[in-house]
Amino acid sequence: MNILSTKKVKLNAKPKDKFDAIRMAGQLLVDAGHASAAYIDKMLEREQTLSTYMGNGLAIPHGTQDSKFLIVSTGLSIVQIPDGVDFGDGEKATLVIGIAAAGNDHLDILTNVAMVCSEDENIEMIMKASTPEEMVKIFESGIES
Length: 145
What we know:
Layout: E1 9-10, H1 18-31, H2 38-49, E2 53-55, E3 58-59, E4 75-86, E5 92-100, H3 105-118, H4 120-128, H5 132-140
Parallel strand pairs: 1-4, 3-5
Antiparallel strand pairs: 2-3, 4-5
């Protein structure tokens, strides 16, 4: 199973708030078979203790440390939010990347996602992506699976 696929990309999302955005990202992971539905609750729980907003319009929600048993396989989901969604402290996320990481994949994936999203031209391409295929291509170019 691929870490990222077109089925795990949602373009032009309009979440009500950051929790709605996290639910969208989590549901894509659940629907793809990477995690059980309870994993979404753990993603929301983590957000309440510590914001997953990383800067540069990027949030990377993931489960709590005790949610590993809810993960079936490693996967990424991407939610593009052109209007942005408030992640607190005046920070707006335009890109929410959900992560379900099996084993010790977590840090490698976070590092790779952060590298892709640290490049301004990549963020520009990500926000202009009009098909899930385009989005997957941008990330696959920067993520070694």
